[in-house]
Structure prediction request, 244 residues.
Amino acid sequence: MADAGQGGQKNTKRPQRRRNVDRSAATRSQILDATIRALSEFGYGAVTNHLVAELAGVSRGAMMHHFPTRQDLLVATVEYAYGRLSEYRAAQLEKLKPGLPRFRALIHLAFDTATRPPGFAVNEIRSGSRSDPDIAEAVTPMMTLIAADYGRFIGRHVRTAGMVPDDEIRGLAAVATMAARSMSINRFTHPNEQMADNIYLMLMHARERIIARQLGEGAAWSTGEIERQLKQFRTKRSSRKQAS
Prediction:
């Protein structure tokens, strides 16, 4: 009977520990979601552990338990936000056929993710750390890992499209990413949809020239098809603005 009692006690403790782990993970996610919201709505300079605790609806003790310092909070936010963006990109690409359709979608996804709260939060941390050496030192290793992972992500889809991820393609991916980041900030200081259209149009033309060079002229879109895709880009942008 003693053994049965001890066995019962162990079975009771395991679910309790599991519940504690689940609650801790849920609280952590709650805090990180609140940090993304704070960065998106108030900007880097306004984000403090106290503000995030209020937005997350957690005690300051819980906040300190998970993230003792602002550096800890922002490093974890970068990693968490990138994970959410990666899941979003994967879900969007899953709707398309592998190969060129997914490769072509990468430019649109760069602009799309840059204006979503997780993307904007990472951009705020990236920009804000320039004037905050302690934060810059803390987040740089994670930013480096993210850049390498994103490069591998691009490379996989380039190869699946039957192409070679050469320097020109790497350059196109970098320009698209940086342009998207800049435009996400520019919409607050100088919202200019025509500028966004011009950038998107230039990137599509550059992409199709690369496709033609690597796969032949027959694989590339015509000018008319590029114009049609630009109209779709405008429609999606308008729909998102209305939804927000």
